[in-house]
Amino acid sequence: MLRKTFVIAAMALLPAAMAHAEFEAGNWALEISASGSNDSDFDGASAGVDFSLGHFLTKEAEVGIRQGLDWTDLVGTSNSGSAWNGTTQLFLDYHFDMDRWQPFIGINGGYTYGDNVRDTISYGPEAGVKYFVNSTTYIGFLVQYQVFCNEGDDSDAFENGAFLYSLGIGFKW
To answer: CA–CA separation, 56 vs 53, rounded Å?
Structure first.
């Protein structure tokens, strides 16, 4: 009998818990992610950590800053070897409110710098999804394509960009 009562109570509370698993205007979000990237020819790779802090202007629109620090190991290029690199970006994302699932699309722009990269302005599109495991904690997945402005001929800048992927945990308040 006790188990049946617990199951009924849990089922009654589940919709209420799920109803609060979304963003609202004025919310802040802090995310810590592990990241990986590769160049457009898959010749090199990197791994690192990213931190992002976002503020929701509306329940759909988030603006924020993202800081990344990456260790890079390039193989088969003139810059072969390992090095530390960083990115500092501003971003603007639009979330599609699907309760616990919060897919989003957006844009970013910032600065890429480090030992084994040419310091440059970078920008590009991004997309991802945030899945709420409870009302304040989510798992986030992000895919970005970075276009580097100082890659020689600007007509090749998009073609010479890089994909970045990250998976992390986030908290809203």
So the answer is: 10
Strand stretches in the chain, DSSP E? 28-39, 44-56, 61-74, 81-95, 101-114, 120-132, 137-148, 162-172
List the chain pLDDT tens, one digit each, 173 residues.
556 655 555 555 554 444 467 899 999 999 999 877 777 777 777 789 999 999 999 999 999 999 999 887 766 656 567 888 899 999 999 999 999 999 999 999 999 998 877 899 999 999 999 999 999 999 999 999 999 887 555 555 556 788 888 999 999 99
DSSP single-letter state for residue 3:
H
| Stretch (H or E) spanning 19 | helix 2-19
Q: What is the pTM of this model?
A: 0.76
State which residues form the domain around 125. Answer: 2-172
Number of domains making up the chain: 1
Query: CATH number of the domain that 116 lies in?
Result: 2.40.160.20
CA distance 73 to 38: 10
